[in-house]
Predict the 3D structure of the following.
Amino acid sequence: MCAKILDGRKISKEIRNDIIEQVQHLKDRYEVAPGLAVVIVGDDDASHVYVSMKEKACQKVGFHSEVYKLPKETTQEELLKLIDELNASKKIHGILVQLPLPKGIDENLINSHILPTKDVDGFHAINTGKLLLGEESFIPCTPKGILELIKRTGENLTGKHAVVIGRSNIVGKPAGVLLLKENTTVTICHSKTENLEKHVQMADIVVAAVGIPELIKGNMIKEGAIVIDAGTRKVNGKLVGDVAYEEASKKASWITPVPGGVGPMTITMLLENTLKAAKAQCE
């Protein structure tokens, strides 16, 4: 078997074209452009690259974009004050604070200070709770993008066995909850899981999100499985995923590449969440 590629770039482009149309409708009806504020603290190179990508994506779909680049010496109180200002701004519908934050700043406190209605990253405790309860909420962008990719296969997910490798609050846990909502049976594995290979071999759907290069080997993939690789690490200057792509693609029915799979979907889901926030705040 040779796996079909779930092309995140192509799917993202389709979704973004639809977003552009909806943004124009919002402008025509309310004279409002969805506004996203991105805050970055410190000088982490990777974070600055991500923020630049988000800013460019906003511009291309017609969003109002504001980027706040703060020095690493910024105090928690100063950051909270900025969030208060953005919470009150009528031009800003979504707020994203780029992680990680410097030592001395409580990420949970910062995320909980953003208004739930502007929490387009889906990290606020209220949105997390609503997700768990199956209520309408902002869904974290990477898990939301993962589910969209899985649905694009056209496969009936009901009754399938999904194995999520990774238990972070940002990807692993919410991905598991989303897959449960699709009536799959979910196993969440992590660094303490015994016989990881055995669990993965039983999976109809594999979501790898641990950031360990090529942890998931081809012999661990069940014939015909859907494989979603959400891990990225640089190895010898090259981006590598959690899945040994060449090996796994010989057994999977569908697979995401790295790069070009989950990454583009994450930013696109951020745009979707911001558009959703803008609509809600206009109505």
User: Anything to note?
Assistant: Residues 8-30 form the longest helix (23 residues).
